[in-house]
Write the structure tokens for this entry.
Amino acid sequence: MHFTKKLLFLFIFFGCFTIYAQERKEKEVLNIFTFEEVEELHQQIPKPILVFLYTDWCKICFGMKKTTFKNKKVIQLINEKFYFIKLNAEEKQDITFLGKMFTYKPSGTNTGMHELAAELGTIKKTITYPSTIILNTVFEIEAQLAGLYNAREMMDILTTYID
């Protein structure tokens, strides 16, 4: 009987930690939307849109996904003040945004770029990975940030933008 009480206590004790850890983890997840979802949500609650433009082969993009966009403060700020979209510049699926269909345009055997990535990420006829684009509440490009930004830099940029 004594062993059963200890076992029950341990089960409850660790169960509370597990529930607490899951609850905290859920709050620290970056809400990621599609362009179609953002258009719909934007009708109810207009917010600026933050687009992270990346490719699967880009090591800096991978690093930014694993550090900057995993930072608790960055996640909280983006979730509260922006709609966040990740856009793979080599996405092969068509994307409809603002009534226009954007498609993937091959440029070689295994190369190409999505039209929407080119439209959002091109700066002076060049596209850089990663790029972070801010669209205002009327879907105009407010900022195109090329390259790596750590969590502190991203917080400074986003905070300045919303102020």
Observations:
- The first strand starts at residue 49 and ends at 54.
